[in-house]
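To fix ideas at the outset, we first show an illustrative case, written as a sequence plus integers encoding its fold:
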Amino acid sequence: MKKNGTLFKQFIFAAILLTGLLGPQYSYGQLKTDDGDDNDQPAQAPKPVPVKYPKVVGYLSFIIPVVTMDKNTTTTNFTTATSIGFPVGVNILYSDRFGFSYEFTPTIKSQNSMSKTSNLLFDPGPMFRFDHGFTFIPRLAFETSGRYGVTPVFNQIIKRTKFVNYFVAASVPVRFGNQEAASIGGNIQFGFIFN
């Protein structure tokens, strides 16, 4: 039994050693050029593959309505109630500069030790894409609460990875209707886009 245990340990050690010796050749820093020259110089990182359009990507996020103002009152989140929205959507990218976004946002409101889904927002809009991950999205807005309007969104990608891109966005919702005064607000949103 002791001999089998020693053999197993040797096998594990050999597997780790073999992985350590073979693994580095697959990392970008250790790639060699394929030009036949064995000069031990690392190759350049592979060039990114051009994106084929149209491209469809989905995203998940959460949004915090910071403040809402109308002619009568100013309401801030986290004072008498807490509201958090969970936008999910699909972006159809037509080029490096333009796309269209379809977004649904259910909102959960917590007040007086009770919580409930208080609203569902549908806000589609065109995407104007700029350099360095910045996007401007002027959205239309239709709420199940009876309100409607527009929501300009200023979106910035803050980190890119192979599978997802993380973003932060600021939005300025303007709402009308449902026998209430017109309002304007300020929101902040965090989320990730699937690549």
In short: The longest strand covers residues 55-70. The helical segments are 2-22. The two ends are 51 Å apart (CA to CA).
